[in-house]
Structures are given as structure tokens and as C-alpha cells.
Amino acid sequence: MQRAAKSASADVYAWNERHSEPKYVTDLWLVVTDRNGKKTRVPACRAVLIMNCLFLHSFQAGDDVEIPGTVCTDASTVVYFLWLNYPRLTTTCEDDEEFIAHSPFDGLVDEVLDEDTDYDEGRMAELCLAIGKIASLADWIQCDATIKRLDIIMDKILDVNVPCGEPSKYSKYLYKAQFALNDVLYRNSNLARMNGTTPVSSFLNRNRHPPFVLEFPVAFLSMNDSERAQIADHVVPMFEAFLEGSTFRFTVTCGNTTARGLSLSTQRTLLEVNKFLLDFYKKARATIDAKDAAISTLKDRTLGSCVEEELVKRSHA
Questions:
Q1: Residue 288 domain flag
Q2: Domain annotation covers residue 116
Q3: What is the tally of structural domains in the chain?
Q4: Which of 26, 53, 56, 239 has a beta carbon 3.0–4.6 Å from 43's, enabling a disulfide?
Q5: Is residue 290 part of a domain?
Q6: Integer Cα distance of 152 and 157 in angstroms
Q7: What's residue 250's pLDDT?
Q8: Exposed, middle or buried by CB within 10 Å (0-12, 13-18, 19+), for 18?
Q9: Is the pTM of this model over 0.85?
Q10: What is the average pLDDT value for the chain, to the nearest integer?
């Protein structure tokens, strides 16, 4: 992740340098504040962005657009978003030949989707985190085109880079990105809300990725408490979908005997879930027992104090 941070900082610097060239019009600044309170003003062209970003129609040329910290805290996310919404930008090489510039975000997507390269968990995590952040910014700035583009990218990741039969590649970052995108797509879909669906059920209804559901418990168990809290609204629906999907059975015929049962991978997943629930129960039970013991001790002390006071009163009488 340290490499990703350095790369992101370089991407922001490169964008600012590019936009300072005479051929680019800078009449709008997207201002983002990081977690340490440092503000970064990212240059942009209003005429370009208002074609896709409805929220920016209320701003005039020369304005600063302050992005809330709850929406975005990374200047690199703003730069990725701008690349996705600008026309194909050009750059000039050393011999003054002009060619199409490649967005750093598109480069990351291409790297992850390249079937000829080995799977890289770090790069996958970097891309998934970026997708979640861009989705949040696109939702706030009301840019439907970017949201649709991210949805297409996620579908490609699920179809190409994480093929069926390789559950280890369904990392927790993939689920976090998909859930963040689900929330945005749901909020921007009147049809989904009118039909009374949830973000998860809406996703399941429009997708063809059963392994994504069946491998969810494994990814869930790999998350820490903070990460589980971030996806809390999605956990129960996903487990419900998992249990429903686990009812698919395979048939094995041996002689005149036909046996039916769950696949071995599903059995292993259910075993891991049961271990987690048992461990969770033990911790919860220990907490309850500790509270009961504390209450019992408090009652004993209170009762003992009352008896002692009564004895003192009787001795004085």
C-alpha cells in the first residue's frame, strides 16, 4: 500500500502539471481535505465536467468546490475521477509526436485484468479501494456516466480475473468495492427502490456471479471488526443468498446407488462459518458471564453492607 500511496501522489502532481499547460482551461477547483486536515486544490475545466456532472451546474467559473470529508479524503481519487470524465487526453513524447495519454486509473484496470500476468493481491486491493472511493465521489457529484463505467469494470473483474474455481482470488477488497458500488447504484435506481429491493438483492438479480456469493463467507472471515462494520448492511442478505445458493446439489452415481450432497468447497466454507459462529458465541457468552458475575458481586456487597448496618443498629439498640 506504501507503493500505491507514492504512485497516487505522483498522479496528483502529474495532473496539476498537465492542467497548467496553456491548452487546458482551468476555471474550477475541486478541493479535497485529507485526514490530517491538509487541503489540496485539484484544477478542472467546468465546461468539460458539467456535461456529465449534474451537481456542478450550480457552480460558476472560478469557484472552489469543497468536497465533504465523508465523501472523499484523497486527492488521487479526484484525479482518477477527472480522467474518467475528460475527453481522451493527448501527450507529447520526446520527438514531439503527439499520442493518446493513458489514464493511471485505466492503467491499473488493465494491469489487474491482464490474464497473462500473475494475480497480484496488492494491485487488486489498490484497484478495489479506488473503485469504492470513486463511486462515492461520483454519487455525490451526480455523475451517472462514471458510476456505469465502474459497474462495467467490476463485471469484467468478476468475469475475467476471478474465474470460477479459484476462490482465493475473491479477496475481501473485491467485496468491499462491490458493496460500495451496490449502494451507489441502488440510490441512483428509481426502479430498484420502487420494487422494494435491497442493494444486495438488486445486485443479485442483475448479475451472473454465483461464485461471488458462495465465496463471501471466506472473505467475511478474513475481515477485521472495522471492515465488517463498514459492510454491515450487506452481511445478512449475502449470507441468506449463500445459504440459498448452497442448496444446489450435485449427483454422484456409483453402481445402482445415487448420492446427493453439497460440494466439498461449500462444506469447507460452512465448516469455517460454524467455527466463526462458535467462537463468536463463546466470546459473547464470556462477556455475559463476566457481567453477570460483576452484578452478582455488586449485589453481594450491597447485601453485606445492609446486613452490617442492621447489626450495628441492633447493637446500639
A1: yes
A2: no
A3: 1
A4: 26
A5: yes
A6: 9
A7: 37
A8: middle
A9: no
A10: 77
* Domain with 302 in it: 252-316
User: How does pLDDT run across 154-180, given as a tens digit for each residue?
Assistant: 988 887 655 444 544 578 899 999 999
The pLDDT confidence band at residue 229, using thresholds 50, 70 and 90, is confident
